[in-house]
Protein: Aspartyl/asparaginyl beta-hydroxylase domain-containing protein
Organism: Pararhodobacter zhoushanensis
Amino acid sequence: MLQKLILKRLTKRLRQVYSDLDTPPVLDMARYFPAHAALAALYPALRAEALAVYAANPDIPLFHDITATQTRISAGDGKNWRMFMVKAYRHVIAANAAQTPVLARFLRDHPEVTTATLSYLDPGKHIPPHRGPFRGVLRYHLCLYAPDCGSDAAPWLKVDGTRVPYAEGQALLWDDTFTHEVLNPGPNPRIALLLDIRRPVTRWRHRAAFRWVMAAGWVQARLLERRMSTKA
C-alpha cells in the first residue's frame, strides 16, 4: 500500500515536470528515433532470436512477477504476459543479452535505448487501458510474430483511442503516458520488441528528471536482475 502511494505521488510529480511538452501520442520515428531504419533492417534476425528464446525458455518471467506494481495490467485476466528483458534503465541483463546477440549488438551501438524487452502475449491476453508515468522516454514497438494478423482474430494496439492493427515487421513510436491498450484475441501468441528511447529534450528540468529516473531505475534493475533473467 505504501509503495503504491509513493509511486502515485512520484508519477504525479513527473507528469508535472513534463507538462509543458506538446507532442502528439504517435511520433515521427525519423525525427525522434533515427536508428529505427537500422533496427527495421534487422527484423528477420530479431524475429528468429525472439522465437528461439520462446522455445528455449518456457519460464520467461511474468511481468507482475518482475514488478509487482504492474499486477493490475499483467495478471487481471489469467492469461500470461511474459517479459524477456535484455536491458532495463540502461542496465544490460547479461544472461538474456547472451541469448539475443543481434539485439544486444544494436543496443551497444545505440545508448539512447534505455530499456529493451521481448514481450510475449498469450492467446486471449488483454492488457487493459493504462498510462505510463514518465514522458522522458518514448516507446518503440516492433511486431515480431503475430500469425493471426489479417484475420478476424488479429491482435491490436490502441493508443489514445486510435486502434493500430498489427502487421509483422511493422513498427510504431508513441508516448506511453497517453492511454493505451492491447488485445491478442487469436489462438496464437503475439511477440513484440519493446524499446524505451530517450526523448530528445533541451530544458534542464527535463534532463535532470531523466537522469534521476535512470539512476533510480538502474539500482532497481540491478536488484531485480535475477528475476528478469533466464538461462537457455
Q: What stands out?
A: The chain has a mean pLDDT of 91.
